[in-house]
Amino acid sequence: MEWADFLGHHRQRKWFANAIAHNKLASTFLLVGPSGIGKRTFALLVAKSLLCTETDPKELNFCNKCETCVQVESQTHPDFLYLNRDKERSAITLDQLVGSKDSRMREGFCYELRIRPYSGRRKIGVIDDADTLEEETSNCLLKTLEEPPPGAVIFLLGTSEKRQISTIRSRSQIVRFSPLSVEDVEELILRNSYVSDSAEARQLASRSHGSIQYAQELNDPSLMEFRNQIQSFLMQRPIEFIALAKAILDHVNNSTREGQPRRDRLTWCLDEVTDALRNSLWMQMGVTAPGSSDPASVFAPLKNLPVRTLVKLIELTHETRGNVGRFIAPAALLEAWTANFVRLARL
Length: 347
Ligand SMILES: [Zn+2]
Known about the structure:
This protein is of the alpha/beta class. It folds into three domains: 3-176, 3-Layer(aba) Sandwich (Rossmann fold); 181-218; 220-345, no CATH class. It contains 15 helices and five strands. The model has no long low-confidence stretch (mean pLDDT 90). Bound molecules: zinc ion. Zinc ion binds at residues 52-54, 62-63, 65-66, 68-69.
């Protein structure tokens, strides 16, 4: 991947280029924005630019040919550390950060970051899924952020700075990323061959909320079918919330029996509802949803609810989503969500 192939986020690029040129790069960055818009790729490209041995270190650029570039791209370079949540787990673990109990601080992300750079330049660490950092792991990470190894640059990737404890936030330079434009998502859909027809790609992109990940999900027939089912529930008056919650639970139970993939699927369902609520809110406020060029394509079934109620419902659904990782049974979570939803909305 080269900068020339990277779409969107020009302001963030310019900002990093300027910081590197003036030697004013912070040690910790919190990159926030919706999933699937390019934050991970962006961090990888900055890392390559900082480590490439063939280009001017004051430029946000890389040759993409030297051994370092090739190794960073394949995530095998010893100075480039990438950490993400194990797909079977709900959060990044303490062991991943500071090593297992028997070898605390002698292995793990924070330890490896402290080892002298192999290239003699710097270490770069990327923590993906930073939303899942829990208080204990955050506090452990904080020690490294407070006294980072010389030259080290750490990227935390998440959806919102609100998902981080205040001490992590205050130690980080926060960089916000916005959804991609419809044109950029269309281009990425064609590049990734999700569909081959450009009219189809355009239509998919216009409903993607500026996220290539979302576009990919929209293209999955089983998810598409369930999305339509959620939408038809929300279109009814009165809304059959108990039946909706049961449909979500059945969908989660039927998709997979494993713990974490089930939780991921439940998160996806709640995000679907949040999207419908958010669209309704935007419509109420008379603005077009980001990443959407066609207001008519926005699904906004609850547009008649007062803005304040919509905001409360979004908060409630978001809070429930945050509890998905806390090992509460999906059925119990959905039951509480449904009861509160009906009470707040009085539909
Ligand atoms: Zn290079």
